[in-house]
Amino acid sequence: MPRIKFSSDCKRYSLLIRSEHLQEIYQYCRVAKDNETGGMIIGLYDKNGSIAMTKGILGPTPDSRFGNTWFYRGVSGLKQFFNNLWTRDSLHLLGEWHFHPGGSPDFSHVDIKQIEKLAMDEKYNCSTPILLIVGESKNIFSIGVYVLASVGKLIILK
Ligand SMILES: [Zn+2]
User: Fold this and answer.
1) In this structure, are residues 37 and 100 in contact, taking their beta carbons and an 8 Å threshold?
2) 11 torsion bin: left (phi>0), alpha (psi -120 to 50), beta (else)
3) Catalytic positions
4) Is there a smaller number of Cβ atoms within 10 Å at the N or the C end of the chain?
5) Given strand 3-7, what is the order of strands in its sheet?
6) What's the 82 CA to ligand 1 centre distance in angstroms?
7) CA dist., res. 18 & res. 4, Å (int)
8) Whether pLDDT at 152 is above 80
């Protein structure tokens, strides 16, 4: 299965995303149409912790709420899910994805705040989360991939 690699200019951070996982995200976006949607990215890190590899995509939880220009990621079922993930499958939460219908895949001020919140939440054990944003124009998707290297420092992966 083909994979697409995104890396930071400094080469410290990379994401290998399987094309089937990208298609899965796009499918959630198509279903959401004009509304924002989002979820989480699950995967593994290599030995050095610098290359993240996707193993699965989660869509919006049932308690997620959304509108045309905002998305609140819910939490229902996640605690149990992640407990199982770590103990049984040794997988990690890599980060989050969300959709900007009719917008660019650039991150907003609110997006930075939300990914920082995730990084600081110990129950997710994800201190340098990836943020993947899907933009859309005339039904064509584009993506922006970022990593929160430290608080206030969101680096682009390309
Ligand atoms: Zn956003």
Assistant:
1) no
2) left
3) 36
4) N
5) 3-7, 14-18, 51-58, 38-45, 92-100, 130-137, 140-150, 153-157
6) 24
7) 6
8) yes
Between CA 67 and CA 74 the distance in angstroms is: 14
Nearest to 14 by CA among 45, 47, 41, 39: 45
Whether the per-residue pLDDT at 75 is higher than 90: the answer is no
Each residue of 107-150: pLDDT tens digit?
999 999 999 999 999 888 899 999 999 999 999 999 999 999 99
Measured in Å, residue 111 CA sits from the centre of ligand 1 at 5
Ligand 1 centre from 99 Cα, in Å? 7
Q: Give the angle subtended at the CA of 61 by the CAs of 57 and 65, to the nearest 5°.
A: 125
Residues with Cβ–ion distance below 5 A, ligand 1: 108, 111
- Identify the pLDDT of residue 1: 66
Q: Is 86 helix (H, G, I), strand (E, B) or coil?
A: helix
Alpha-carbon 112 to chain mean position: 12
Give the Å distance between the CA of 47 and the centre of ligand 1: 31
Specify the CATH number of the domain 3-157.
3.40.140.10
- Ligand 1 midpoint to CA 135 (Å): 9
